[in-house]
Amino acid sequence: MTPALEINNLHKSFGKAEIIRGIDLSIGQSERHAIIGPNGAGKSTLFNLITGRFAASSGKVSLHGQDLAGLAPFEINRLGLSRSFQITNIFPKMTVFENVRCALLWAKGYKYSFWHMVSRSRDLTEGADAILEQINLTARRDLPAGVLSYAEQRALEIGITIAGGADVIMLDEPTAGMSHSETDYIVDLIRKVTEGKTLVMVEHDMGVVFGLADRISVLVYGEIIATGKPEEVRGNPRVQEAYLGAALEAEH
Amino acid sequence: MELILVNIIDGLVTGLLLFMLSAGLTLIFSMMGVLNFAHASFYMLGAYFAYEISTYLGFWMGLLVAPLLVGVVGAGVERYGLRRVHQYGHVPELIFTFGLALLIEELVKFIWGNDQVPYQIPEILEGAAFTISSYNIPAYKVFMIFLSLIIFGGLLYVLTKTRVGMIIQAALSYPRTVEALGHNVPLVFMGVFGVGTALAGVAGVIAGPVLSTFPGMAFVLGSIVFVTIVIGGLGSLGGALCAALIIGWLTTFAKAYNVRMEDILTGIGFEKPEPLWDSAWSDLWTLTSPQIADILPYLLMVLILVFRPYGLFGKRDV
Amino acid sequence: MTDISQNPQARQHGGVTLRVAMPWIVGAFLILVLPFVFQSNSAITIMNQMSITIIFALSYNMLLGQGGMLSFGHAVYMGMGGFLCVHVMNWDMFGSLPLPVLPIFGGIMGMVMALIIGSFSTRKAGTVFAMISLGVGELIAACSVIIVVFFGGEEGISGDRTYGMPFLGYEFLSQIEVYYLIGFWLFVSALLMFLFSRTPIGRMANAVRDNPERAEFLGYSSRWVRFNSFVAAGFFAGIAGGLFAISYEILTEENLNLVTSGSILLVTFLGGVGVFFGPIIGAIVFTLLQTVLSLETEIWSLYVGALFVATVMFFPSGLAGVLMMHAPAFKLGKWQMLIVPYIKTLVPAALCIVGIAGIVEILFHARHSAVGETEMTLFWITFDHTSIMPWIVFAVLAIVGFWITRKTAPDLVEAWHAATTPDEVSR
């Protein structure tokens, strides 16, 4: 079976600074994969390379076996890869409902249509309402998204990300800046909405990572120093040395 | 050969004048991210203020005082207008400066009327400075060139040798960082806006007598100044200088040499349709370079934006 | 999901409800009956101009309000549409073409222009787009003087609408017949533009305006979305141009230049870019200001300029935005609370404006009237501008009006807050 996402010898330099220095990674179908690493390791850059926000200096990224080189973000999205952002990235002036509905338009086949009325399409309205139900924002349906609380906006961001029905979901620090109870809410939400899908996420909160991930990759200075099941990674001496040890000690 | 030299001087005058306007506009844009649509209106205010002062105190006092007044008006506009609109975002800012340009034109009409005012060059600068074969080079043009060069020298000195200049220079390349360092106090904004508009005022003072001082003068020059900084690359002073000189020479030479489309077309082997007035292509055949001189900058800008969106020297995306 | 079906604001799946259709029925009714209310020829001419401006402003708002594209060259699409329509009027085959069909030619011309220019200008929104639109606008306006075959040079080109094939027996000789032709197109265009904003591409235009990057990660090319809106806007601008050609039968360079492009920006922004009907209000108010004020005073454009700058500074959402601010008060049934505070603030504010305008007018007269002509008439009173009395009266009006307005404005704000927040049961 082809892996959902495969990365071969990926490099990225900004000027002279080499940020990503040869990454190989293979993420299987329906796998929940977490990428961890200290600040400045290149996690967000890796995300941006995969989703076409930046162009790679060399190397290859393939989604379900298809090479993503040279594709624009919207083309990659159409192949079934959807992402969220570290800094909340929604449509603040539109209502919560409309945010989700916009995310549904392409997947439901409306594309650039100017002969359908969005409000008269039952599948759009029902689909969007179902997602609102899933992310627990039904009560906020008709509010402008910009007025929601931070945690609600993060939930909406996840809702927008999954709405299109992409089978590879990439979440960039979904719990950043959240309180404990908010984090628990988001983790449950992520578990629920990514059922049966491939999840790739960058996360700092080790509780979240070990609770959610099937496999973990550790990224340090642009290189993956370890990949494996949570307990394997936890036991890996290099990881402990480079990063995890300090974090785990701090936790205990 | 002599004609070429004369045209080079004419183009230089136009180019330097354009640069004096576009330098201020570039400074303002680099610091504040605002494309000031009303920039040429401050140039017009400079000319009118200088005219008003010159009727009482003579040309030289006008040259001294008018730019300062324009700078004060500019700083006031920043403080009480732009700063307020800033919170709504860039598009409203651009719309605000557009409205300001309209308003200033109407105010000028209100105060000085619809017609041209008799703003004259001082007696001492009348007449020719020197002659190139049979062509007279007016003393006033030489004066304009020298004054522009002195001002640019001063500007260069301030930008490269003083602390304020360092901050402004840093802001050209790394606006966010400068902001984070706590330098981007509103005072610096106001100052840059004031200085930028004062530069436009100087340009108005010295251009008013030769290009004539009338309410439409801002409109005539305004979009060309925009074109200049877009061609040069937004935020690049060197680019603005380059673009200003290119435009100055391009338009001057296009006007001076009557290049006819007819000659070009027959030159590359087309046959002239007879009778010409009946042909759908008659306009193309009768086209001459002086006719299109004024639209060449726009053509250049559209081409630049299509093929090199950052402009000649720009690094930042607009 | 039962709670949603009970929600009065829920989107309708089924047929068009009366609530949605009501504004359109009222609009159509107004278009039909207005000529019976304002019967004079000049009133009908003004209404024709108004209708054309409305279509043009709505088309402009497809760019600025819906798509976030600030254009300084929208006159190009209207103008080119108009020029083509005048050419069509001068063709031999025009005799077999019913006049009401003519604007479609204009629309297609506007669309073709938008296809060409939009192909490179919609790459980015924001400043790049604004600059390209300015450059292209100036370029085409300048070309119009050079390319005499199409644009007719300085004097422009003219045609005669009555050469067309009679339509249902009408030859469009009179203004009123033209009025209904324009009215028909006004209704159709406005409805189509409204419906466009409700289609997937119309919704995505909003999304791209707010956050182009996010839209890209939802599968939409923001450039293609902008391009679509741009072409549609070009089409409707061309329709407006065709109607202009029918109404005035002449087009000149003026229809293409920056002044026209700028004034439609002014109209649209004045009305409000955030709401669909904003430009309609803007076009009505602006046309009235233009026609009424220009009869009363020479310096009307000074007032319009000042109004525009004040709008950008204090009411960036325009007249429609100000109206919409009061919607909650009406929904809550508390609008009566606002009447007294409004009178208390607006009356002195009006007096203040009268005072300032008076001083401005006297100044203008004193500066620009012929030597020795010191008598002037203002607000139906004739006086001498050299006497000190009028100055004092207007200055007092301005200062006192301003002072009272400042005093009462906070009360108005407070009353507005009270009227737009629901009563709390617990209190």
CATH class of the largest domain in chain C: Mainly Alpha
Q: Which strand-content bin applies to the residues of chain C? A: under 5%
Q: What name is given to the CATH topology of the largest domain in chain C?
A: ABC transporter involved in vitamin B12 uptake, BtuC
Give the total of beta strands of chain C.
Answer: 4
Low confidence ranges of chain C? 1-14
Helical region count of chain C?
18
What gap, in angstroms, lies between the N and C termini of chain C?
Answer: 32 Å
What ranges of chain B have pLDDT less than 50 throughout 5 or more consecutive residues? none
Helical content of chain B (DSSP H or I, runs of 4+): over 70%
Give me the side-by-side strand order of the main sheet of chain C.
Answer: 1-2
* Quaternary structure classification: heterotrimer
Radius of gyration of chain B: 21 Å
Question: If classified by CATH, what would the architecture of the largest domain in chain C be?
Answer: Orthogonal Bundle
Helix content bin of chain C = over 70%
Number of domains of chain C: 2
Major β-sheet profile of chain B: 2 strands, antiparallel
Major sheet description of chain C: 2 strands, antiparallel
